[in-house]
Amino acid sequence: MASKSKHRASGKKNAPAKQASPPAQPAAPAVDWQALIQKYSLPVLGILLLAGFLIRVLHLPDLSLWMDEYVHVMRAKNFLEGDGPLLTDDNNGILFTLSLLPGFAMFGPEVFWARFPSVLFGIGTIYLTYRMGTRLFNRYVGLLAAGGATFSLYLIFWSRVSRNYAILAFFFLLLGLVFLAATEQKAEPGAANFWRRNGFSVKHLLWLPVVALLSLLSHQLTFFFIFTVAVYTLGLGVKTLWDGTEKTGNTKYLWLGGALLPFLLIVLIPPLGGLLRDLLQPILLSNIADWAFPNFNRLGELWSANPLEAFDRYHNLLRYDLHWLYLPALLGLFVAFRLRARSAWWTLCSFAVPFMLLSFIYREPFLCRYLIFAYPYLLIAAAAFFYAVWEWLNRKAMPGMSQATGVFLLALPFILLLINTRWSSVGDLALARKLEGYIVDSRVASWSFTDWKEACTFVDGKRHKGDVIMSTVPTAVSYYLQRENVLWFRQAYYDTGSKKYKLNPPNPNGGPSAASFEDLVRTVEQNPRGWLLADYYLENIFTDERALLWVYQNMQYYPEGSKDGSVMVFGWDHSLPKPERQNLVVELGHYQNKIKSREYHMTLPQSLFEQAKINMTVRVQGVDSDREALVLFNGQNAVWIPANKSPQVEERVVPLNRSWIRPGSNTIQVLYEPERPSDPNKGFTVHFLSITGE
Fold first, then answer.
1. Which domains occur in the chain, in start order?
2. 594-647 pLDDT, tens per residue?
3. Is the dihedral of CA 208, 209, 211, 212 positive or negative?
4. Which pairing describes strands 684-693 and 614-621: parallel, antiparallel, or unpaired?
5. Residue 137 in contact with residue 387, Cβ under 8 Å?
6. What is the DSSP string of 543-560?
7. What is the rounded CA–CA span in Å between residue 382 and residue 379?
8. The pTM is what?
């Protein structure tokens, strides 16, 4: 034993000495990502709100009011001036009209104050999108969704016009927040109080009908909220029965779903919807009843003709405005279930239910702006997708990532958001680079603007007291000239009974009018001076062709009244001679949406075709090349108008092929060639056209 001990001792003594290892470094603390996001959320939100405000408010009054904007503007203006009631038989959007009153009362009925409430509601929508995304998922989702709302061309446009759509998006989001706050409190099964036991907030339940009423007064589309809640609560109710959790405060979903089930049956069972529509028509306004309860006979006709027409309109809007966010948004509707299932179900119901109803049930009329109240939820879905990807990277693919890497990955979707923004179109709005025509893509809004302000300013500088004023859009001229009794230049109407356009009969009582050809002639002959301001409605089906040609032949045309040609300004003065050799005034190419005239009818005598040659004589101005202007005969054959040699009106004679025309009635149409080789002076004007023989 002793020798063994010595051997061991000896071995230890001779072994090489080991160096002491350095003490282990303490592990780096895990990054608290939620705390980091919370730290920067308010500054980022503030930047988004400021950017959203500037984009929406810059050059706000530069664009002339569009026709639909006068619905609210003139009602508020007339009410404050004592010239009309605030409430009429059509009060859709009355809350927005009320929102115009303070600004009009303090600063006057200016364009800026007509549109400024929409700006505020647009900013409010950004904030509520943040609140909804935060409530459903987390602050990051809320911030990213708010960023999408800030730079969405769709939301920007409708926040810059005086219509009740930005206000609808605002109150519909607020209604959703109040509903969730009222019904999604943590249930306390042992509580004696019924509301606490079932997870209700009494305070928010009291607010719910108030906010619902405000939203309904903003737009009648609010009633889609009932369908959203019905599908949401029925889905949760079924899950409650499936999971056996009906004793944990979830029975409320069964009650709510059962109470709202009849509203779904109205949509799903045609006879029930038709019966309710017939019963409620005496109580509701007939047009409201017809819109609220689907007409399945009419839907059958639409389905047979074009089943996807409305769907395509809304879908094209999403593809265009979301752009690169389109796929993340659609995936986010389902990926969000991995984050928080109930929140994902609310998001899916809030978007998909209105989208499907608008596309296939309430599909007439189908207008892009009708989807605005559901649109923020799609932005929330896109944000949820990006957060789910980041969370997967943080937990699975790159666990323990550094703070710098994590922050970069969190910031990446915001960078994508900025790249994705359609800055050129946003600049057209915010910098007023376009003042006429389609200011944004027609997939966002099919509004073609007319620069009434310029034309009215021209007339205002030349009119005399007592001048008669006519217009194809009298509300626009009345607003910009601050003048009542602007005559409506429209001689036809659509008869819903015969489903045909008919001419108005002459006014038997006399008096100033342009509602028929006879009234127009009498009014001009009885008044020494007057003006006609006309947009593209001048040459549409509501204008009697006799009236149109009479205007051309008897009124002076003032091209300087509208540089872009969006408004044609005519005037008459009995102390001056009538226009010389002017039987037509067709101005094409100046205005981006006007590249062809209406079809004019010309009756040609048989004797014309006995001549050796047949010529077309035109008086034109501004034709810069031989391939810019042409005249189409009977919809089949066309002849080019030779270029002008000077800036003045010049007369040109062009030989015609006699086979292109015929004795009797012919149609003639003037066209502007978009693919012209050169057009330094944009557009041209035709003042005279005749066909003669020699």
1. 33-428 (no CATH), 450-579 (no CATH), 583-694 (2.60.120.260)
2. 889 989 999 999 999 999 999 999 999 999 999 999 999 999 999 999 999 998
3. positive
4. antiparallel
5. yes
6. S-HHHHHHHHHHSEE-GG
7. 5
8. 0.86
